[in-house]
Task: inverse folding
């Protein structure tokens, strides 16, 4: 008696629910990971209330103090009729805000992440290293845009400081802002390897930023600073960012207050680009994912 042959039943694989991407086994692209990393960095930044308050509030508070003390009809800078001190002070605060959001923010936060072991854990994941750095740059852009927007809104709305209406001036603002932000970010990444620990990062980085503000024409009219101080300031990017911002927010006749008698746009672009390239080279050579005592 023959045994009937049983034909195996072939089941079709269940269809994936609509809207579910097919799994190809490929890792997401570097760009996709960078965007996700930018979102993670931004959310993490805004959860650090002390850092948020300092970076956003410092330029606004300093502008408020100087604009209130001197007023738009009070002290004026330059030859008659002069520029109201509050208006003259605004470009320096914009440049300082960019420096805080880029250089100081990254130099301190990356040093802390390294000290706490966060960078070591990230290095052990499949995330491309480039995505980490692009995420930091994305964070800096977001923070800088919000900060500058807040500062300009306060300047115009509360203190009556006139903002430019010429599109050419806003184009100048765009490229000075972009170059300054990029240069500050890469220099912050490079400088983050200097502090020996996360605890010492703030003590190492903050004095550098404060000194640069005093010698770069942020708190005082740059042309009235001693010549030796101007020469020292011209080595560093904050002086050039502040000068570029003065060419945006000050009237054209204010150019006579510059020691060179010119806004020196080519010089500004050259110095900021040089810092961007040097910061990249130094950062690539010196960046560490581990603490000094971790091999």
Result:
């Amino acid at each position: 008696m023959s045994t009937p042959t049983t034909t195996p039943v072939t089941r079709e694989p269940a269809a994936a629910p609509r809207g579910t991407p097919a799994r190809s086994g490929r890792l997401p692209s570097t760009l996709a990971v960078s965007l996700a990393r930018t979102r993670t960095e931004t959310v993490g930044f805004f959860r650090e209330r002390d850092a948020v308050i300092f970076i956003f509030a410092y330029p606004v508070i300093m502008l408020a103090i100087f604009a209130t003390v001197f007023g738009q009809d009070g002290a004026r800078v330059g030859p008659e009729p002069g520029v109201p001190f509050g208006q003259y002070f605004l470009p320096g605060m914009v440049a300082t805000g960019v420096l805080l959001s880029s250089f100081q923010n990254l130099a301190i936060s990356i040093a802390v992440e390294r000290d706490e072991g966060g960078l070591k854990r990230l290095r052990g994941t499949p995330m491309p290293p480039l995505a980490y750095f692009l995420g930091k740059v994305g964070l800096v852009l977001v923070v800088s845009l919000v900060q500058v927007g807040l500062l300009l809104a306060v300047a115009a709305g509360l203190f009556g400081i006139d903002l430019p209406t010429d599109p050419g001036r806003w184009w100048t603002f765009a490229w000075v802002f972009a170059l300054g932000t990029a240069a500050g970010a890469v220099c912050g990444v490079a400088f983050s390897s200097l502090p020996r620990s996360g605890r010492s990062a703030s003590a190492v980085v903050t004095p550098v930023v404060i000194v640069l503000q005093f010698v770069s024409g942020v708190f005082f009219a740059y042309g009235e600073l001693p010549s030796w101080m101007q020469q020292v300031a011209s080595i560093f990017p904050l002086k050039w960012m502040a000068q570029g911002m003065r060419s945006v927010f000050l009237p054209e006749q204010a150019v006579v207050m510059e020691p060179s008698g010119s806004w020196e746009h080519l010089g500004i672009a050259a110095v900021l680009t040089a810092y961007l390239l040097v910061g990249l080279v130094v950062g690539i050579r010196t960046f560490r994912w581990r603490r000094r005592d971790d091999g």
Notes: The chain has one domain: 30-289. The first helix runs from residue 30 to 47.
